[in-house]
Amino acid sequence: MPMKLDTSLSHASLTQVPTLAKAAEDAGFDAVWTTETQHNPFLPLPLVAEHTTRLKFGTSVAIGFARSPMTLAHVAWDLAAQSEGRFILGLGTQVKAHIERRFGLPWPESVTGKLREMILALRAIWKCWQTGERLNFRGEYFKLSLMSPFFNPGPIAQPQIPIYIAGVNLGLARLAGETCDGFHIHPFHTPAYLREALLPAIRAGAEKAGRTLAEVQLAGAVFVITNDFQREFVRQQISFYASTPSYRAVLAHHGWEALGEQLSALAARGQWAEMSALITDDVLHTVAIEAPLASLAAPLRERYTGLMDRVTLYHPYVPGDEEGEWRSLVKAVTE
Predict the structure, then answer these.
(1) pLDDT number for residue 137
(2) What confidence category does residue 129 fall into, taking pLDDT thresholds of 50, 70 and 90?
(3) Which residues does 117 contact at the CB level (< 8 Å), separation at least 6?
(4) What share of the chain is helix, strand, coil (3-state, %, to 5)?
(5) Less crowded by CB within 10 Å, the N or C end of the chain?
């Protein structure tokens, strides 16, 4: 089955979303994704639903540990109802420092344990609303047993809301295989790490639950370099991600542990501008694809066919002078 090509709305203001979403649908993209970085990931999505008819959309990602399952359940239910089933809920954990110091919330003893409970709790809430079954979810992190009619939105036409989770390390990959409809692969990855580490972990999780790997959609943002400006930007982004201990597994897979330690030391001293110089061409081209936009389809397909079901370019689609090349790229990748 051909890959699907998606795009991101992470760069867009709310006033731009209707135009960008409609243009993305017209260009042939299969889905658009929002991120939780500088903006709320859910606010643009009712606009996407309103101004498109075919386009799927979702969060890549919303930070699950910053929210209650009930809050997430209501937002997802409303978006699924509005869009007639086009919404995908993508959840991420973030890292400990951000949960504790940016969101002011406790970090769980078990990351996979809490995220598993969150997924199961969401499905229990949705089942309650759809079927009238009593809500009675009890876990270590969440105990949900109250749902009076005043707070129950009732059934919808498309209640099977896909849940994706995001991750870099193997524990979350196994959890995705066990419990999820999809897995968001972090842009800081390599084909070797996908093939030799993440996919076997997702498969193991799926088999544990009596499922197959084919039941888990693999979606990921990928670094591409189509001009000189993007080359330096991608170096900077790779150096930022590689400085984070949580992403060290990718470096270790390639024997680049020393690079990670050097980058972490620079980051700790706030020497951000010096970090990208440590990203050699070998590292750059192992992580990123470099090709003009008009020629990008072939290397994308060569690298990710059989590894990903959905690909999103880290460099987002913007309607404009390259419109014809974008349309050709979508067609060439997805046919």
Answers:
(1) 98
(2) very high
(3) 139, 140, 141, 142
(4) 50, 15, 35
(5) N
